[in-house]
Design brief:
Rossmann fold, 6-stranded parallel sheet, disordered N terminus, alpha/beta, 13 strands, 437 residues, 7-stranded parallel sheet, 2 domains
């Protein structure tokens, strides 16, 4: 699962990707690390598009501070654009789009590839980015070789699997949390953990970009934004549900229009493939998320990080994550968190409707959207609540802070809560002159 919520994932563009080369093949570069060199080897692994985006600013900051270090990654195009040597393309939709035993076998194959590559190399730090089911087993094996482990995006043990805390604590030297409340939760359970900010909320909106991205969006109203998710599996599960909900809304508001934002050309094609014919009022585009949010009046969104993009612009939303009846039942038994959509999790109450997970039809979703459309006071209250959620994240720069944590662990071989506190407070390594002084 992606970090965006207990159920679902999401992506947004933090760095401009370059043209990515094909997945590297053996033999790998011959450089090997020894104890006598100052050239350190840092390994990053990301197994989904959001992880690729989260990791890219960390890599860019590390390359600036430590230009001689070797930064190697199994990841995606944003990590490559930031300066990492990409050894395997693991952060596109491929692996995480596969389900069940086939996915487990594919992840295991990638682990074996990484472990073979690292067998005669001194990997100083492994920065495992999100995807705990894929990253934790790999980190555990690297730990036996003396590699230190940091997790960028804490596993959501507070929602499910709190009983796994001891195992995760044994594997991870430190957790870099993206949600404000996680620091306290993990520290109360004896983790080294620090809230470093969230990449969706660390940069201000650019009015010029919003204006440019709004160009060409359809006139009419009410204006409804449909966000079907970033993975092909999510799109296949949710696309028809979202469009059918919009059609029910349109039955009450004949001039309603919808914009669907897909993350890539591939996901847009997968979305269109779910329909013999799309309603004429539904318009599909690739990218331009921020402008589309600005254009919209409300959104119906698959649960994930995108709910924070919506919160940043205080846009009322209905959160959705469709799954089978039995998966839905299993989730209700396993997941202990009272809310599963990120804005509601942060607020500690339901400030926007969520159907996560959900195995029903479009009627309830459409009704929730219609209630927002018809009740200006309700929309205004939701907007105020979402603004408070977005403001609660502060203005920390997760890429820069995470890079300092990696550097500190690589240089000293250990990391503590006191060291992470100092890094966040001074935005420098412990012992370095304060950049603000």
């Amino acid at each position: 699962m992606g970090q965006g919520s207990v159920v679902g994932g999401g992506t947004r563009c933090l760095l401009k990707p370059c043209q990515t080369s094909p997945t590297a093949q053996f033999p790998y570069p011959a450089t090997r690390m020894t104890d006598s060199t100052d050239r350190r080897l840092i390994l990053l692994t990301a197994f989904e598009p959001s992880g690729d985006l989260h990791a890219a600013p960390v890599i860019a900051a590390l390359k600036e501070r430590c230009p001689d270090w070797e930064i190697v990654a199994w990841g995606g195009p944003h990590m490559e654009a930031a300066g990492a040597t990409i050894m395997g393309n693991t952060a596109t939709d491929g692996v995480m789009g596969i389900r069940g035993a086939t996915r487990a076998l594919e992840v295991r194959k990638i682990h074996q590839e990484i472990l073979r590559w690292g067998e005669h190399r001194k990997i100083v730090v492994h920065l495992a980015v999100d995807s705990p089911s894929a990253n934790l087993p790999l980190s555990a094996q690297l730990k036996t070789r003396g590699t230190r482990v940091l997790n960028l995006v804490a596993p959501q043990l507070w929602a499910w699997g709190a009983w796994r805390a001891k195992k995760v604590r044994r594997i991870s030297d430190g957790l870099l949390c993206l949600l404000p409340f996680e620091e306290r939760w993990f520290r109360e359970r004896e983790f080294v953990a620090k809230y470093v900010g969230h990449p969706v909320l660390c940069q201000p909106l650019d009015p010029e970009i919003l204006k440019t991205e709004r160009d060409g969006l359809p006139p009419g109203g009410p204006r409804i934004l449909l966000l079907p998710g970033s993975r092909t599996s999510e799109i296949r599960a949710n696309a028809r549900l979202l469009v059918r909900a919009f059609e029910l809304v349109q039955g009450r508001h004949r001039s309603a229009v919808a914009t669907v934002v897909c993350t890539t050309d591939t996901t847009a094609r997968v979305f269109r493939e779910q329909f013999d014919r799309l309603p004429s009022a539904v318009h599909v585009r690739v990218g331009g998320l921020e402008g589309a949010i600005d254009w919209s009046e409300i959104a119906i969104a698959v649960s994930g990080t995108v709910s924070l993009d919506l919160a940043r612009q205080a846009k009322p939303m209905v959160g959705v994550y469709r799954t089978s009846f039995f998966s839905c039942l299993g989730a209700k038994l396993l997941i202990k968190a009272p809310y599963l959509l990120l804005p509601n999790i942060i607020a500690g109450r339901e400030i926007v409707p969520e159907f996560v997970p959900y195995s029903g039809g479009p009627e309830k979703i459409a009704q929730a959207a219609v209630e927002f459309i018809g009740d200006g006071r309700k929309r205004a209250q939701a907007a105020d609540d979402l603004r408070r959620v977005a403001n609660s994240f502060g203005d920390r720069d997760p890429g820069m802070l995470a890079s300092l944590a990696v550097e500190h662990l690589a240089r000293t071989g250990s990391i503590t809560n006191a060291a992470l506190d100092a890094i966040v407070q001074t935005q420098t390594l412990p012992g370095e002159p304060n950049a603000s002084s």
